[in-house]
Design brief:
Residues 8-261 form the EAL domain. The chain is an alpha/beta fold. The chain is built from 11 helices and 9 strands. The chain is globular.
Length: 269
């Protein structure tokens, strides 16, 4: 039996081959408009489709990939494939955005805006449908360059979100000094908001601040009906979590959209 350690060590030997063979693929977790109960976006989450071991979660390969810098190549594969998939769904009449995570090494590359422009042109996706998700650590080393790169990417029509806001050493500096279009509130707040009074108040403060700064908001980690009700009460209509769906293949995502149309009465079963 192969244990986790064996898989990780094996991945160290195979990861470059896997990049060449395009074995890293995106799975899509829906982002749902709470009031409309409708998918309005997805987050592309990388998985390794290993030919012998099956589908591997990021914990088996991302630590090595980030340490060696090959994570930027994986980012590029996932970004291109996600844009291709979403463009095809747009062609079928399913409108949505797609959010893709970028690593620190990839984001700090001075040619990132050019690479994004090339992907947009090659895949044909509407730039307004693409969201790049960044964590604070991406921008810590060179603030001026980070702002410059963000501006260049946004000039293409692409949005940029601050991911996992509220985790670790989050503070107002990031929202006040970087030109984000939106934030994704870390799951720890919504999952503890009904049990921990302090977290509840912090969450309300984050939502109020985001509204005042005209930032779009996505609440992560929604897993219960009570949490869903909270989202609706606060007037923030977009949420993401296992209550709606686990990450799906592109085929599974397309099936979800066809099901939505059936439920809306737009198709005859």
């Amino acid at each position: 039996m192969i244990c986790q350690e064996d898989i990780f060590m094996f991945s160290l030997q195979r990861i470059e081959q896997a990049i060449l063979r395009e074995e890293f693929v995106p799975y899509y977790q829906p982002q749902v408009n709470v009031l409309q109960q409708k998918i309005v976006g997805v987050e592309a989450l990388v998985r390794w489709q290993h030919p012998e071991l099956g589908l591997l979660a990021p914990l088996f390969f991302l630590p090595f990939a980030e340490t060696t810098g090959v994570i930027s190549e994986i980012d590029g594969l996932v970004l291109k494939k996600a844009c291709q998939d979403i463009h095809e769904l747009h062609r079928l009449g399913f409108g949505m955005s797609v959010a893709v995570n970028l690593s620190a090494s990839h984001f700090n590359h001075k040619y990132l805006p050019r690479m994004i422009a090339e992907v947009l042109e090659e895949t044909g996706i509407d730039p307004c449908s693409l969201v790049l998700e960044l964590t604070e650590g991406v921008m810590i080393h060179d603030v001026q360059q980070a702002v410059r790169v963000m501006r260049e990417v946004q000039e293409l029509g692409v949005k940029i979100y601050l991911d996992d806001f509220g985790r670790g050493y989050s503070n107002l500096f990031w929202l006040l000094h970087f030109p984000f279009n939106g934030v994704k509130v870390d799951r720890c707040f919504i999952q503890s908001s009904t049990m921990d009074a302090k977290n509840y108040e912090v969450l309300l403060s984050i939502l109020d601040l985001s509204r005042r700064l005209n930032l779009e908001v996505i609440l992560e980690g929604v897993e219960t009906e009570q949490q869903l009700q909270f989202c609706g009460q606060q007037g923030y209509g977009v949420a993401q979590g296992y209550l709606f769906s686990y990450p799906l293949t592109i085929i599974g995502l397309e099936k979800r959209f066809w099901l939505e149309r059936l439920q809306e009465g737009l198709l005859v079963a």
